[in-house]
Design goal:
20% of the residues lie in helices and 23% in strands. The protein has 1 helix and 4 strands, in the order E-E-E-H-E. The chain starts with a strand and ends with a strand.
Length: 66
């Protein structure tokens, strides 16, 4: 999966940022090649990572290891 070329994220994720799949706290934000962004909890990002990679998604925020 591609990481954003910008080394400073546009914004940090907050408690108000929830996973688009399950409403848990988001720790990853991805941007799709055709537009739009998705927020992910660690569990769902791991589950969908291969599919996101296949569709050319780019990680713009990754707070899994903080």
């Amino acid at each position: 999966m591609k990481a954003s070329l910008d080394t400073t994220p546009g914004r940090p994720l907050t408690a108000a940022d929830l996973c688009d799949r399950c409403s848990s706290g988001a720790v990853v934000e991805t941007v799709m090649t055709l537009g739009g962004s998705l927020l992910w909890c660690a569990l769902h990002f791991a589950f969908f990572e291969d599919a996101l990679n296949a569709h050319g998604a780019t990680i713009v925020v990754d707070e899994r290891r903080q």
